[in-house]
Write a structure and sequence with these properties.
10 strands; 140 residues; 1 helix; alpha+beta; 4-stranded antiparallel sheet; 4-stranded mixed sheet
């Protein structure tokens, strides 16, 4: 067997092993939980709430108090230390419910450095809440 044939055989074996590893682990258990508990605010009944949702669910969520689908997750501004709900928009003319604007900033300081509010995070110490977005938001 020549040198080129040996190198080709080794390359094919390595590609086969890589393909096996990729396909055997791709369907394995996810490291991300299937469900979460989040902190939010219901724009319908104007109450803070804790609510459960599935990993792939998107806002707005169902309110545990009034059952309206009007709960949005609190965000935390890393600059001004305020909690806020992002600006809400109807993403299409057919949309029934408003969603957070795809790219948003803190309504208090206009900073775009934020994260999801997590009450158990010792690094998040809110000094208050920013002004809430309009509800319902205007169409168009």
């Amino acid at each position: 067997m020549g040198r080129n044939a040996t190198l080709a055989a080794v390359a094919i074996a390595l590609l086969g092993f890589a393909a096996f590893r990729f396909t055997s682990t791709a369907g394995g258990p996810s490291l991300v939980p299937a469900s979460f508990t989040s902190q939010g605010f219901c724009m319908a009944c104007k109450q803070d709430c804790e609510f459960g949702h599935e990993r792939d669910d998107r806002a707005p969520f169902n309110c545990p108090a009034c059952s309206e689908r009007a709960v949005y997750q609190w965000m935390y501004c890393l600059e001004c230390d305020r909690q806020f709900i992002p600006e809400l928009v109807y993403r299409s003319a057919e949309a029934e419910l408003p969603q957070p604007k795809p790219f948003f900033a803190c309504p208090a300081c206009r900073c775009s450095s934020y994260t999801l509010f997590l009450p158990d995070d010792d690094n998040q110490k809110p000094i208050g809440k920013a002004k809430l977005p309009k509800w319902p938001p205007p169409r168009g």
